[in-house]
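Re: the request from the purification team.
They wanted to know what the chain is likely to look like in 3D before they choose a buffer screen. I agreed to run a prediction and write the result into the notebook, where they can find it.
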Amino acid sequence: MIYFMFATGIENSCPTVGGRRVDEMAKCRHYELWRRDFDLVDECEIRYLRYGPPIYRTWLGPGRYDWEFADETFAELRRRDILPITDLCHFGVPDWLGDYQNPEFPALFADYARAFAERFPWVQLYTPINEMYICALFSAKYGWWNEQLKTDRAFVTALKHIVKANVLAMGRILEVRPDAIFIQSESSEYYHAQNPAAIHPAETLNAVRFLSLDLNYGHRVNSTMYEYLFDNGLTRDEYHFFLTGGLKHHCVMGNDYYTTNEHLVHPDGTTEASGEIFGYAVITGQYYDRYRLPIMHTETNLMEGPDKNEPIRWLRKQWANVLRVRNDGLPIVGFTWYSLVDQVDWDTALREDNGRVNPLGLCDLDRKLRPVGEVYRQLIAEWREVLPTQSVVLGLPVRPPSQHDDASTRDLVASARSRERRYQHAPSNDPS
């Protein structure tokens, strides 16, 4: 029996802002305190950790890697039998690669992903690229990070390169670990029209929000998005590459939800935060109806305020939404409070280097459990064995690191390799 995946994460964002590298692992002192951070994961009785090596410090050039930190940390995760959901690219790339406008990024990143899988063959769960839509949006449409551009063409260029990199990376990882499972962590968005004059721009934005996963899963876009993509540089060959990717059956549709994920759209197309209106369950239903994949709630948090209970109320609300999704018959397999410890400068989306601590974690930066951490630990203890997953994608069980070398795992990997060969040669009947 595979039980529900309760998770947390260690924030490894590393975009550049005006040439300045922003490294959340450094800001949150993870490089110094990583052993204590893993202690906290154990103390909270969490077995799944969204985690990855800092890409810009690890990937030194084509075929050149510095695995020292990854070797230490992943060896310790394996020793503790914590299952990493390995996050290989979180909002930034190494300086030598430039930014997401670079057409060489997809193939080079796929090489990096395979090199990681070869070095850590016991790792089964991956998020190759985190929040592909947000990464492209903030880097190439809002002008906040990395290339800091503000055009539709730059956005489409970043998006197609990011998603192609994700698809290629999944394929290269499967060459090494054929039973790998890919848990996308994508922002689940919704755009509300302020008034009738805003209906058209809201509908357009509600189509754009799906583009990263449409391309990733080979789902045909609607006519408006087809024209939008082609008007802004996507080619016919590129589009057909995404339609024939064929890796959807290895995926869990991980989606993130915060109070900032819903937006009010004005008639001129500008937006502002609307706060929670529909909520996680309603918006997740929209994504599930589109992709028909197992679901995982891969990120949420809320800043602690004066009464200290704000995150606890939010945790309980999100958990109620998870249960509603499950009771509606959707195959939801996991939940994540993100992140383990407080973050720094996310109140300005990392654009300002203020050193301001954002109390969002299960623990503070002194590595002391916050009240929400206590409640999450209790929630896990009460619900862990009540919610076995029933997902087709998890028909190949998730194997803890301690079982990587046993005979049953070797048999499962061999079976996965054989199944994948049969799948690749079977005719597609996916209506998307």
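For the purification team: The chain has one domain: 5-425.
Please add any questions underneath this entry.
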